[in-house]
C-alpha cells in the first residue's frame, strides 16, 4: 500500500477473544477496552498502524476503504479521533493511532480508568473525566520518557485536586453529583492553567506542541489530535523556571477557583478556616483542616511475653491521635493510663503503587515490667483514645507466650501450619478442596482460614474437613470496616488495599507464635514443590535440614514459578472432582527473579513484621541480641508453584514447557479425597457449574485494578464487589463485624 502502511481490520474472532475482559456497559469505554485488549495480543504487537471501523456493538466493520485518506498530514501526529479525515471532525466510530508505547498506554488507561472509577460513586462516571485523566498521565509519562529533569509532574498536581476534593467530602458533605463535578473541574482546571501559562512558561510545555482544549465538557468537541516533538537542545534547561513557583501558581489558582465556585454559599469564617496558608509541599499530604474524627479498628491483642503485648489494628495514616492502655486491677484515673507505641506493620507505611490507600495495618506495642502483676488472672486490657473522658474499651488477650520444655526448647503443638489471607468473594470450591488435600499431604496440621465473604459451599467444605481428627482448622473472621452511610460517614473500606492482607498475615503469625514451628504464607492456588532428589520431596524434612544448617534463620524464602491449568470448572458436585489434570500441565521453564512473587515459610517468634512477598524486620536473638537471619531456598531444591487458570496480567518472558512433576502428587490427592469423600456427606444441590464465568469476572477486575496501581483511588475490594453479575450475592456468606472500634 501507499506510504508503507498496512490496513489491519480486526476480525470478529479477535473481538470475541477479548470481549470477555471488557464488561463495560458504556459504549465508549467498551470500545477503548477492547482495542487495548486486542493490541496486547502478541500477533498485533509493533507490527501495524491501525484503522479500526467499529459498529455500535464494537464489531469491526469490514468494507473497502482507502487507507491513505486516514493518514494524517503531519507525521508527528500519534493519534487522531475523527469521522471525516479531511475535516478531522470527531465521531466515536473511528480511531487512528500509531502503536507506540505511549498511545497504547493512553487507550488502555481510558478503559482502565472507567472500570475502576465506575466502582466509586464519588467520581464522575463519564468519558470526559476519563480522557482528562488519561491526558494528564499521558503527558506526564511523555515528559518523563524524554527527560526526567523536565517532568511536568502532572500527577502531583492531580493529587492536589483530589486532596481538595476530599476536604469537601470530609467537612462540607456535598452531594455526590457536586463532588463528581468538582473532580472534573479539578482535571479541567489543571490543564487550563497549564494551557494559559504556556506562552510565559513555554519550556514546561515543551513536549506538547499542540493540544486543542475545548471549553465545553462535551466529548465530541474535546480534542482532535495530539502531536509530540522532542527537545531540541540541552541548553534549553536554563530556561526552566523553578517548578516550585509553577506548582504554587496552580495551587493558588485552584484554591481560588474552588473557593468562589463551590463554597461561596458557606459562611465566610468557614471559608477562612478551609483555605488557610500552608506549605502544601510538606510530604505532599492533604491539608488537615479540621480535627476530623478518625476511628481506629483493632483486630487482636497478643500477650507476647510476661512484659509485652502487641496489637493488630487498622488506622488512617493522617490520624495522629494517641492510644492509651490501662491494666486490670488499676483505678480509672489518668495516671494509670500509658501510651501505646504505634508502628506501620509492614515497615513501609505506604507501599509502592498504593499511595491512594491511606488506611493501613499498624502494630501497637505495650511494654510494662509489671504486666503480669496487674493482669493476674485477667486476660484483658483497657484501651482509649480520649484520656480525659477515659471511655475504656475492653480488649481480650490471646496468649502467644513461649511454652518451654526441660532442655530449653520450645514445645510446639504443631510442626507445620499455614495462614490463608482473607478470602473475599471466594467461590472456587474445587481449588479449596485441592488446597486441603495438598497441604494435609505435606504434613500441615494447623490451618488458619481468614475470610470476609465466601460462597456457602466453601463453608460446607471447611466444615467437612474440620471432621478430620489429625488436623485443626481455625476460622478467623476478617470483616469489612463498619460505617454509617446514612450519617455521611466516609467509607473507610475504600481506603484499604485488598483487605490489608499483610496485617492479616501478621495477625495469623501472632496466633501461631510459639505454637507452630514453621508457618507457610501462600495463596489458595499455590503449592510448594520439593524436588524428589531433595529429602525425597518432603517439605518438613527440607525445613528441618535447613534449620539445622542455619539455626539462626527466621524464615525460608522460595522463588515462584507459574503453572497453567485447563478450564475444567464446570464440575458441579465434588464427586466429579479429578486432579488428573495436574499430572501433565504447562509451566514456565524459569522461576521469577527475586523478590517478584517469592513466598516465605516463617518461624513466627523470630519475625517482627510481614509483607506478602518481601522480607521485612526480624526479631533479635535473645542470646546474642543480633537480628535473626533468613535462608534463600534455591529453585533446584524447591519452589512456589502458582497454579493459574488464567494468563497473568504481568507479562513474563519465559519459555513454557509441559511437565509431569505433579503426577505422583496429583494421584495421591485423588486417592486421599476419594477415601474421605463418603464421610464428608456433602449436600446434593447448589454446586456450581458456571464457576468459569464467575472467575472471568473476578479475573477481569483483578487485571484492571493491577493496571491502575497508585492512580486516583485505592484498589479496595469495593472496586470488584460491585462488578459481579454472574454470582448470586444471596449465596455469599459475609462475616459480621470483627473489629473493635476505638
TrEMBL record:
Transmembrane segments: none annotated. GO terms for cellular component: cytoplasm; membrane. It is found in: Membrane. The keyword Membrane applies. GO terms for molecular function: glycosyltransferase activity. Its main location: membrane. It is a single-pass membrane protein. Keywords: Glycosyltransferase, Membrane, Transferase, Transmembrane, Transmembrane helix. It holds the Pfam family Glyco_transf_92. InterPro entries: Glyco_transf_92. Belongs to the glycosyltransferase 92 family. This is Glycosyltransferase family 92 protein. It comes from Strongyloides stercoralis.
